Amino acid sequence: MTEFTVTARGDRVAYDRRGSGPALIFIAGAGPFRAMDPVTTETATLAAERGITTLVYDRLGRGESPVEGRIDLDRELEAVAALLGVAGGRAVLCGHSSGCSIALAAAARGLPVAGLALWEAPLGPPDGGAREWAAEVDRLIEAGELDAALVHYMKDIPPEYLEYWRDSPEFPALVANAGSLRPDGESLAWAESAPLSELCAGIRVPVEALVGEETLPIMLSAADAIVAAIPGAVQKRMPGAQHEWQAAPMAAELAAFVTAAFGTAARDTATDAERGTAESAVPRQES
User: Fold this and answer.
1) Is residue 56 assigned to a domain?
2) pTM value?
3) How far apart are CA 238 and CA 17, in angstroms?
4) 107 in any annotated domain
5) Does residue 82 form part of some domain?
6) Helix locations, the chain, DSSP H
7) What is the CATH number of the domain that holds 224?
8) Over 50: is that where the pLDDT of 251 sits?
C-alpha cells in the first residue's frame, strides 16, 4: 500500500515499504516510477523476504509524487533525506543508472547512508561533457520542449534503445515527467566535475558497483572508476542485460549486502566506543 512522507520543504513523496530489519532505499534513474517499473517492485518484495526493509519511491515529479516548480538535485536529495527518516535514520541506497550519481551525491554530502549498491552507473571521466549536456537538457525543459529534452538526455544510448523507448506505451509518461531529469543531469555533471576520488573522499561506507553480464563498455569503465576511487569498493557482475537486472539474484545480493553493511556499521560504532573508553581511562599528567 502506498505511504507518503513529506520533505523539509513540504514536497510529498509516495513510497512502498516492505519487510522489517535494516533498510534499503531504491533510487530510480531517468524516467521510471513505481507504476512502470515492476522489476524493482519484484526485487524489493523478494529482498524484504530475506530479513530487510525495502523502500521504493516515486521520485519527485513522477507517479504519485507530483510537485510544482523546478526539481533540482538539492530538492531530490531532500526526498532521499525524508525517506532515510522513514527508514529509521539510516539506510543503504541502491541506485539504478543515474540514480547511482544521486546516491553518490547523497553519501558525499553526509546523509546518513549505510552503504551504496550502484547498478550500472553511467559515469564519464572528468570533464567528459556531462556539464554541457546537462545544461542543454535543462534549457530544453525550461523552454517547454519536453520531448526534445528527453531525446537529448538519451542521446548517447544505442539507437535501438531509443527506438524501443519511443515505441513503448510508457514514452508519453516519460515525456510528461521530463522535468524530473534535472537531478539526474546535475548529479552526473557533478560526478564529472573533478576526479571521482576527490568527490567521494568522504565516503566511508561499503560500496559495490554492479553491472549486468551483458552491458555497455561505459558501465564497465564506470564500475572500474568507482572501485578505484572509493576505498574498499568492489565490483560484481550480475545476471542482467540491456541495463536491467534480474529480480531474484539481485534481491539475494542486495539483502546480503544490506545485512553486511549494517553489521559493518555496528562494528565500527562499537570500535569507536571502545576506543573512546580506552582513551578516557588513560591517566593524564597534571601540568
Assistant:
1) yes
2) 0.91
3) 25
4) yes
5) yes
6) 38-48, 73-86, 99-108, 130-142, 146-153, 159-167, 171-176, 182-191, 196-199, 217-229, 247-281
7) 3.40.50.1820
8) yes
